[in-house]
Structure formats: C-alpha cells, structure tokens
C-alpha cells in the first residue's frame, strides 16, 4: 500500500458489513497504524448497541459514539423540510443529509486526535463517498482520505462476507439476507438483492421494518394535528414536542398506517441509476402538512419561485454540497419565506396516505370574501375584463399580425 507514513486513522464506523471488515483491513495494510472508530448517533437505534465491544474486538483502539440527533433535526432536517426539498420530486433525502453532519464530527475528532487520515466504507459506485469527502474537504482540506472500496481486492459484498468469516468477524448479514440498509430517525432505506432488478416487484412484507404494508394498515382513518412556527413543526395534537420526539412519534403513527413507503429508481451522483425502497412515515406526514400550510401563507410569486429553488436545494443536499455558499444562500431565502409559515394543519392518515383536511393560520392569505361563489361586495367581476385584455394583449397582437402576413 502507498503512504506507509500513516500512523493514525479515524474511521467512519457503523458496525455494518463494510466498516466491520475495514478495521482489520486497515491494520493489515497500514502497518502499525492506530485505528480510531467514530459513530454518529443520528437515530439508528439498536444498531448502536454492542458497537464499542465489536469495534475494539476487530482492532480499533477506541470508539467515539457521538449523539448528533438534536443537531441533525434542527440544523439539517428542518432546514430541508422548510425548503420543501425532494430529490427528483420524491426522495426525502434521509441518507443524504445525515452524511454531512457525521462527516463534520469525524473531522473534528480526527483533528483533535492528530490523525493522518480519515477512512470510510463507501463504495466507488455510491453517493455517500461524495457526501463524506466533500464535507471532509470543507473542514480539513489537507486531510488524506482512505476509501478501501476504491482500492482493495474485495469486489463485492459476498467477498466481504467471506473475508469476515476468515477473520472471525461477526457481521449482521449473510449472503442470502444482505440488503444494504441505512437507518436513522428520519428514514430507512433498502437496496440490493432482488431490488437490483427493477422488473421485480418489491416484497414489502419481507422488506419493511418501520411501516405496515397498505394491506396491513388499519381500516379506520386517524386524524392528527401539527402546529408549525415559522415553518418548524413544534407540536403534535396540541402537545409541544422537541424535534427528535416529534419525528419519532410520527414515525410510529405513520408507520402503523403504511405511510411514506416509496419504491424509487433514482439517478446517483456518479450518473448510474439505482433502485431502493424507502420508509419515511414521519417525514412524509411533515412534508404533506408543511406544503399545505405554505399554500395558505405564501403569496403566488414567492410560492412559485420557492418551488423552483426547492429542486436546486434538493440537488445540493443529494450531491453532498451542504457546506457550500449556494446552500447557505438558499437557506437564507427559505428562512425569509417561513416568517409567516405559522399555523395548524389537521391531517387524515389512512391506508398509506396522509391528506391535509384543515388549515388555519394567523397569517392566512385566503380571503373567503374574495373567493366565495356567493354574492359579495369585495370583488368587482367586471374588473376582470380589462385584466384579461391586457394579459392577453401579446397573444392578440401576434394573431392579428399573423393574419395580416397570411393575406
């Protein structure tokens, strides 16, 4: 291996197949190097149990487990929710915005530890390599990055499983059950195995962890209310909640009703298409509620322009460009639009769908006097004739000139 001078490596560690194998691999290929593992707690739950013992047993000198949940929600999830950002108008960015926060903390620890390099277990085909490394460049531009998937002799997850068996490394998957799963408090994603063929129908009963299938969801709808203050959800059914608790509670409620299950084919950063099944019950409910409230509180021009910027915001998040001037500028614009996004949304949850059924806001722009089909004294309907004449003037002028040219 190149660069034998590396003596201390900080590894982004999840305890999954890839990073479980990487610790001994680093020890073998960077002779004498100390490996420090870092795990970011972004709400993956039971995946963190027993992690320290496992990391030390496979060769790490220590393990940091950093609780990042509050920062994850307030500084990454809610800004993206306020932006209305959905990658390719569907994906709610669960893995994408979890990577910058983890990578930033890893850099902070690497600098504190005086590390020579940061290692990660992202594949050379995936999005996460880009997200991790762009964040590393933002905070430690001279740090060396080790990405074993781009250099080692292991060419597949099956090879990794065999390597683990030879080195007596316990891993949480087998050759038959090795879906690639990423979980945090916002979502769960599933990739690999039969999902790699878009022609195969996803066996949701087998795959889903957080959500019921629509068939197994309750036959009775459930109604909930969500209160927003400046675009941020602050209460569920009238009860004030912090962001982490609110999302976890909505995951339970939405998962019961089979809400937020998506089977997507998406365009990865590197250009290829990939397929995944996503579970995003709480996020789907929050996006539905937030979008509905904006319909009430944003003027037409702001709302339409914001919908355009949402596409770019989602791309920046998906591409790992969180720590960039453009993302920060878009967030500043979004924050301005959210100054009046305050109110209460009532939703009906039923058989895989969340539907906003009631909207109230002290900043509503909806005027019943103006919108009514009944008799009113607020709107002079004859005014519309002059508006239409002016609005349609370019169309009329072109048609008249076309007629003249055709004679």
Quickly describe the structure:
The chain is α/β, with parallel strands linked by helices.
Question: Can you describe what's shown?
Answer:
The chain has 14 helices and 14 strands. With 407 residues, it is α/β, with parallel strands linked by helices. The chain folds into three domains: 8-180, HUPs (Rossmann fold, 3-Layer(aba) Sandwich), CATH 3.40.50; 187-298 and 341-360, Argininosuccinate synthetase, chain A, domain 2; 371-406, no CATH class. The strands form three sheets. It has a five-stranded parallel beta sheet, sandwiched between helices. It has a five-stranded antiparallel beta sheet with strand order 10-9-8-13-14. The longest helix has 19 residues, at 300-318. The mean pLDDT is 94.
CATH superfamily of the largest domain: HUPs
Domain count, please report it.
3
CATH level-two architecture of the largest domain: 3-Layer(aba) Sandwich
- How do the strands of the widest beta sheet line up side by side? 3-2-1-4-5
H/E element order: EHEHEHHEHEHEEHEEEHEEHHHEEHHH
The number of strands is: 14
Number of helices: 14
Reported for the largest beta sheet, the result is: 5 strands, parallel
Indicate the CATH class of the largest domain. Answer: Alpha Beta
Kindly provide the radius of gyration, computed on alpha-carbon positions and rounded to a whole number of angstroms.
25 Å
Helix/strand class: alpha/beta
Strand percentage: 15-25%
Q: CA-to-CA gap between the ends? A: 80 Å
